Amino acid sequence: MGKVYIVGAGPGDFELLTLKAYRLLKEADVILYDRLVGEEIESFIKTLGKEIIYVGKERGEKGERRQKEINRLMKKYFEEGKKVVRLKGGDPGIFGRMAGEIEFLAENGIPFEVVPGVSSVNAAPVCSGIPLTHPENSYGFLVVSGKNSGRIKELHQEGTLIILMGGCTAKEVAKNLIEAGVSTDKDVAIIEKGSMKDQRVTLTKLGELVEKDFNFESPALIVVGHVARFARFYQNNRNEDRKI
Known about the structure:
Elements: E1 3-8, H1 19-27, E2 30-33, H2 39-45, E3 51-54, H3 63-79, E4 83-88, H4 98-107, E5 112-115, H5 120-127, H6 155-158, E6 161-163, H7 170-179, E7 187-192, E8 200-205, H8 206-211, E9 220-224, H9 231-236
Parallel strand pairs: 1-4, 1-5, 2-3, 2-4
Antiparallel strand pairs: 6-9, 7-8, 7-9
């Protein structure tokens, strides 16, 4: 059977490609790759003897038209029974159009898996010796794209909030956000033991997180925002019996 793997290539350094990404690239029949995967990784995949197709969006090009072509290719090769790696720069979930692609795959009954990559969000600063958090100087950090920097004021309502190490304090976190003006109807996903074999995802609303008694195991991460709903697409493609 065919299958599609949406894979993060990392920030460009070949040695920051994950072991899983490396294995899948070697096992793939077809690789659909983006412009920002990095020259070293592009050179590597060209030595693998695979069917390789460049699908990167060029500056000034309309993303919608390019995305339709990518979707068509993923479906075409899946129907041919091929293992497809959709290779994206950085991490596919950060400004990588992952949402639209997994929605398309799910709606068309195409099995898929998402493989995270090292994001430039943390890789570029850390490779420059810059910590994004600090006990006294920085309790968190904000990520926006350059074209949307003028909308920073909207982020607390329209953006996505990630709370690390939030399992034990989830109820308190929810109370604080509601007091800060975040809607009680905001979608929330609590991810326990993320990426591990016994990963568990619980979908709820911010208001319900305050009212109900949940018991989350550490390590747990909280995602607050409407994008949390996309976990349903992914879970429906998985065979593992995990709570959602």
